[in-house]
Structure formats: C-alpha cells, structure tokens
Design brief:
The protein has 310 residues and is mainly α. It has helices at 2-19, 26-31, 37-47, 53-65, 79-114, 119-133, 136-150, 166-191, 195-202, 207-245, 250-260, 263-291, 293-307. The chain folds into 2 domains: 2-65, no CATH class; 85-261, MetI-like fold (Orthogonal Bundle).
Length: 310
C-alpha cells in the first residue's frame, strides 16, 4: 500500500499547490513584478512551468522514480541533498519525543488502571486530558520562558549540543503523552478483567508479575499502534516546534519553502514524510507478530492452506 499512498500524497500536494497563486509561476516570484514578460516566459520554460498540469506532474514523477527530487526554484540547489541534510534532525526530534511519551505515558497508564477510581486515577486522567488539549506552539513558548529565560537551564534554540533537543522533545511529547496514558489505561482495564488474569490470581501469583508478564503483554498491541502512529504524526507535527525553537530540520525547511512558493521543495518534503509514515506503519504491523504469537500462527496457517490448495 506504500506505492498508492505516496502517489496519492504527491498528486494531492501537487494539485493543491498548483491552484495556489504563485506556485504555477515561479519565474514571476523569482524575478519580481518589474521583470519583463520575455524574461519570465524564458525562465518558466527552463523550469517547465509553462507545460500543462498533467505533463508537469508526470515529468516530476519520472524524476522521482530516478531518485531526483528536482532543483529548488529559489536556491538552485539539489532538493535531495537539502532534505537529507535536514531530515536527521527532524527524525531525532520525533524519536526522542516518542520515546519520552512512551517511557512516561505507558507506566502512568498502567498505574491508573491498577488503581482504578482512586485519587491517583482521577488526577492523572484530568492531567491527561489537559496534556492532549495544550497547543504545541504555546507549550513550546512557555518552556522557553521558564527553562530558558527565567531559569537559564537549557538552550532555547539550535542543536549545538544534545541539550538543544530537550525542550523541543518535551514540547512534542507532552501532547502525545496524554493520549498514550488514556490508551494504556483503557487497554489494561480490558485485559485485567479477562478470565486468565483471575486464574493467575487464584493460583497465588504476585500482583506485579500478573500485571507485567500477563496483562501488559496483551495490552501492548493498541498501545504500540498508537505509539507508531504518534511517531509518524510527530515527524509532520515537528514543523511548528522546529520553527519555535529555530531547529534546522525538515519542518523549518518546508515552512520556508512554502513562504518562497518553492513547489519542488514542498513536494520533496511531503513525499519523504509520507514514505516515512508508511514505513513506520509497516514496522508496527511487523511488531505485532513478536508481541502476540496468535497473529504469527494466523498468517502461518493461511500460508499452509494456500500451499496445499485448501
């Protein structure tokens, strides 16, 4: 499904941006309104912007199949090189934020499920809803004011050291942490009511072994699904956070390209993010096999039936 997804994303982005004023006339944006029509027409012919929509789109796809994202309208630099130089920053930021959300959100969700209807449960659920509702850009600005300006503990821009990732990662992770807390709590509550959990308790097993070895493993499938989807969303959602903290990542690059009306740059970033999201979903699906052996046996039985023609 990755191929139709990436093709669909490329077509939608190309189509929408072609309808936006200025994107279909890069020469006018580059040369200015005072430039002569002859100069504008000549430059548009150089970029192929004078051709019909579908011809321009299929020419772009042809270059994409060869691994060529094109050349930037404004900088005349290779987009592949620019994206690959900035993508690791966005990837690290999303990875740190996702790990922080998972390592904090999942244990808190387990605790609230085990202590259902307690004061801890009520307080945690309120904070989880607040975390989900907080706007990311506002949270980033508040973190800059508190830890950067007032306390002076952490840098507020750039990634000169690993400490530069702390505030951006925290800003991204808090929003998704609330979702993971709620999903983990719901999944654990559903599992702990199962008969095999009651049987384990009747056998006298310790509560922490029941929760960790029996309940948690079966509750992890929806949690990992949400975590994987969250990681893919964080790659795209890092756009605003990178702008707030002035990080040289793919998000900042994309916003600058939109401001310059640089269609190839925006397309290249969108396609890379779509491919990354598809690969993450594939990794999540493969992870199910290692968590739940029933899924592996299900696919194995289908393979045997096809092999023997049943």
């Amino acid at each position: 499904m990755m191929i139709p997804v990436i093709l669909g994303v490329s077509f939608l982005v190309y189509f929408i941006m072609s309808l936006t004023p200025g994107f279909d006339d890069p020469a006018r944006i580059m040369l200015g309104m005072e430039a002569s029509d002859e100069a504008v027409e000549s430059l548009n012919q150089y970029f192929g912007a004078d051709k019909p929509f579908f011809q321009r789109y299929f020419n772009y796809l042809g270059g994409l199949l060869r691994g060529d994202f094109g050349i930037s309208y404004s900088t005349q630099l290779s987009i592949s090189g620019e994206i690959m130089r900035r993508y690791p920053t966005t990837l690290r930021l999303a990875l740190f934020a996702c790990l922080l959300s998972f390592c904090i959100g999942v244990p808190i969700g387990i605790i609230t499920a085990v202590r259902q209807y307690s004061l801890t449960d009520y307080i945690t659920r309120v904070f989880a809803m607040l975390m989900t509702a907080i706007p990311g850009f506002w949270l980033g600005i508040m973190l800059i004011l508190l830890f950067g300006l007032h306390l002076g503990l952490l840098p507020v821009s750039g990634i000169a050291t690993w400490r530069g990732f702390i505030l951006p990662s925290l800003s991204l992770s808090i929003i998704t942490m609330g979702t993971l807390i709620r999903i983990t709590r719901s999944a654990m509550l559903e599992v702990v009511r199962q008969d095999y959990i009651r049987t384990a308790r009747a056998k006298g097993q310790k509560e922490h072994k029941i929760i960790i070895h029996h309940a948690l493993k079966n509750a992890l499938i929806p949690v990992i699904t949400v975590a994987g989807t969250t990681f893919g969303m964080l790659l795209g959602g890092a756009v605003i956070t990178e702008s707030v903290f002035a990080l040289p990542g793919l998000g900042t690059y994309t916003l600058a390209a939109i401001g310059r009306r640089d269609l190839p740059c925006v397309l290249g970033a969108a396609i890379l993010l779509a491919a990354s999201f598809s690969l993450i979903n594939l990794a999540v699906d493969l992870t199910y096999v290692f968590i739940d052996p029933r899924i592996k046996s299900q696919y194995a039985s289908r393979g045997r039936r096809r092999r023997f023609g049943k």
